[in-house]
Amino acid sequence: MINSTTSPNSTNATEASANLPLLGMDCASCAQTIELALKNTPGVLKAHVNIATEEARVSYDANRTDLTQLVATVKSTGYRVGGAELKAHIQGMHCASCVSRIEEALRAVPGVLEATVSPATEIAQIKYVPGMADFRTIKQAVESTGYQTAHPLEQEQSSDQETEAHQREYKNLMAKFWFAAIISVPTLLVAYPSLSWLYAPYLFSAEISENVIRWLFILSGIVTLPVMFYSGRQFFVGAWSAFKHHSADMNTLIAIGTSAAWLYSTVALIVPRIFPEGTAEPFYDVTAVVTALVVLGQALEVRAKGQTSQAIKKLIGLQAKTARILRDGQEIEIAVEEVEVNDVVVVRPGEKIPVDGVIIEGRSALDESMVTGESLPVDKQAGDEVIGATMNTTGSFKFKATKVGKDTALAQIVKMVQDAMGSKAPIARLVDVVSSYFVPAVMIISVLTFLVWFNFGPSPALAFAVVTAVTVLIIACPCAVGMAVPMSLVAGVGKGAEHGVLIRNGEALQLASQLKTVVLDKTGTITKGKPELTDTITAGGFDKSTLLRFAASADKPSEHPLAQAIVQGAVEQGLELYETTDFNAIPGHGVDAKFNGQRVFIGNLKLMKRENISFDTLEADVTRLQSEGKTAMYVAVDGKAAGIVAVADTIKEDSIEAINVMREMGLEVVMLTGDNERTAQAIAKQVGISRVLAEVLPEDKAMQVHLLKAEGKKVGMVGDGINDAPALVEADVGFAIGTGTDVAIEAADITLMSGSLRGVAYAIETSKATMRNAKQSLFGAFVYNTVGIPVAAGVLFPIFGLLLSPILAGAAMAASSVTVVSNANRLRFFKAKSFTEPSPATAQ
Amino acid sequence: MTITQLIVNLAGLAAIAWIVWYFWLYRKEGVQVTEVAGVQEVNIKVKGGYDPDTIVVKKGKPVRLNFNRQESAMCSEMVVFDKINKSATLPEGEVVSIEFTPEEKGEIPFQCQMAMLRGKVVVTD
After folding, report:
1. B76 in contact with A at a CB cutoff of 8 Å?
2. Which of A331, A478, B72, B109, by CA, is between 20 and 30 Å from A51?
3. Could you tell me if A89 and A153 are in contact, meaning their C-beta atoms sit under 8 angstroms apart?
4. Is B48 inside a domain boundary?
């Protein structure tokens, strides 16, 4: 499929231009054919065909010709015009006659190349030049005929280009395989005439003359040629291009191997005299069968590779196709690409959020699991950020688009994941050095094998020498070595993204797998980072809600975060607050407020001492609250103790579980905080952390990480991407807790889309599994080659008399590269301890 | 040892020597890039290798490498610049540009994902 951008700009009223994507171009001369044909079309001012981009750029006089005409011109040269395609469901179609009316209306839309409507399925299939026509204009055209259409139907978008390319490649390779396989059968039969009784007991019952056999071999040689040059074409083309670059790859080995077998056989057939007695034995079957097997291996590999990168396809597929926006007070539906920043988007229950933005009206719970990995729906209201590609549940709301196109969180995630998949793990760098010497080394081994057999081998030495040399070339599998780490990396990075864990590159992944210590920032990482009301303890005959109501009313005008936490707590309990008539904030103490004819003090012990109010009866409670890491605030009404309200930065629901998983993995978990020792210890105890670094000034956090690293362990640091940035950079692996739509956090090696610490555990688990997988593949590939090549060379022959057939070598080679990809695919089914399926009780 | 044997052995050893020289020792000449409108731009054909595969650029000036993959073999589907942490998927028949500004003298290698195809950008003063 070809992407094209079209600029229907016109310098004067009638001049128009269009970029037509072309299909089926494979030579430079056809570019000229098309160009000439277009130029000769009346009304065309300029035409240029770009062979590289496969596009025709045409300027034309819109009064004298149109797109349909241009498309027809291209068709007349034997080529086709590509373009985007969409399918739309036409509602209310009852008769066959309306088909032509709708089709006509659609074809009249500028930019539409083809339109067909099927009355049976009620689906219109429209081919158009993107940029000239869009769904909106198409919809208008349908509506002008009195019918309705809602959405473009889901279909393979350009994001699936890769899938399509892979599928094409797969089909292509399979066709080549079948061809080679069919030819292989007779060549095999001819090569082993002694087995003829198996399939034709009577045909060869009599001694067949040598002449017949000879002719059968000649026939084999001839039919093997197309196998080499059709099925095995890519080996020769690839080998030649590599050769020109002074490099050699798998293609080189297969090309030399198969052609050497063919050449030797042919020479042996034509001039058997030049060979010593008994060595003039053709083996065309090797050429055909090896080609068939290796091509089959490649086809299976292509297919398996498609699965490996499924994660990214899933991500791309999350993108909403259309958006409903408000324009001039009217709701209109447009393609998601056309949404602009500041557009007001309307979201109804059950719909997908098309782009990133901020809610301006309404409220709802959003399922963000596909992006953040957070399984529970998140409540959102005016002022909250929404992330494109997430799902609205039951409410409806309007939001203002803030990020569109490539700036959306989803687009950034996709980019980051793609980049990570293309990066190198340090372990792969080592492999690269090996692979750069690998193929020439195999060629040298092959030559040496030939010489050894030729000089010292048993008779017929020459035949043995050729067969073993060819077998060495064929069995060597540089692909398996080179693919091991990248394939696992692709699968692993994709696996991470499934739960909102974005790994920046292969290095981060490898380091994450080696972590021994994980440092967690307390505020905002282990805890929610926002104080919440936790306890109300009454005194002097007040009941809890009255106490809270008084405290919150007094605190309402205050901007202090602790005061706000109390107000929030009261509001959540549905309490109505009094209007304060007199409010006075006493710095370092608390507040003094009057309402409802009563005077209320709320603040610390210092304030109460100043006002001479005794809280002796509550002393024990205060001590207990403080040891739990909570902040107690004293409330006095009309000069008498009324009770205590406590607020605390509460622990995130799943922090404890996540820390448990990390400890189970054998990681040392350390808490780092600027808070005082007592509060820090209290939190640490609740979540099960034994090592606490408290009272650390923000600027010293990086230093603390540095000191931990000095203990000789790999240290991971988890914090927010802004305040903790220096510490994140200092750590071997920096994990940043993502906030909303900010995805690309510079300081972080790994970004967690959800605020949950489970992401950290998951990231480490995934990294470990990925590296383990990569090492398995790598180890397997090395063992395969280090064992396979000597066996192929015949080291087992002197002792066991064993010699590997080149055909078996071909099968082994094909299997080994498929195995590497399949092993990487196993990662897709990797189950993490940190993300067990939510039980029905917790899932909503 | 017969004459034939001698010839075969010598030919084999010569082949080995040639492999070593051709694939390992041979030093390629780089393609000096011309500068257009402040950008050092070069088109690279990707087909069984990178053509050209050695690109000489000046430091401090933006470089644009336009990759055009003209094959469907999956080996070359991705180009990776490990040193500068960049990579790109190369759809067949499309031009994909990689841009960066080299700040230091030295070599910036690039390769396919499996490191079978290789090239490098040589940064000079």
Report:
1. no
2. B109
3. yes
4. yes
